[in-house]
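Feature request disguised as a bug report, sorry. It would help if multi-protein outputs had a clear separator. Right now it looks like this:
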Amino acid sequence: MVKKKNSYELAKMAVTKKYQGRGIGKMLLKECIDFAKQNKATEIFLVTNDSLKIALNLYQSCGFEFDLNYDDNRYERGNTKMVLNLTNDKK
């Protein structure tokens, strides 16, 4: 995770294909969320691709929402931004 002011960017999280489907991605994501909360972050955001349906479902299951105002072109393959607001997070 990369800190940016009061938020963190979740970048380059992946689970090797051999180990996918075992809950490892969710465990890693929850650890990142806990880390951000402990460090008083107000949000976590990530940039992904809308073709990665399994990843999108994982992020949504942990409370991330689509940022429909995404206009950052830093990542060649990233076309979708998602944000988890930690100021009113109940997860």
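(second protein starts here, but nothing in the output says so)
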Amino acid sequence: MSKKCEDGTYIVLSNGGKKVLRGVRKNYGYFVSLKGYEVKRRNGVTEDQVIKYNQRRFVKGTYVGVWTDEDGVTYLDRSVYTKSLQTAMQLGVQNEQLAIWDCRNGEAISVVNLG
């Protein structure tokens, strides 16, 4: 049985023909989720489920985000990374996101339309 996947950002790699998750940590920059790729799970997700999600909803150059809200609902999504706050906000608006992830401070920032 696959182990539970913790909240975080991941890429999926091949290791001897087997798919494995690798956590991604950035010291600066922003992750922005893409519209239309979100999946919700009520009881968390396993690493195998994240790998399957990646195979079914693969988008080149993106990451898999896993996060759990205060009600215990776990979300899987596709995210892009950018070093620019302005670009992150523009992408957030384009993808109808409520927030982006600030890697330096380890927190969500509400999306605002910078016009």
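Even a blank line would do. Unrelated, but nice: Helices lie at 47-56, 85-94.
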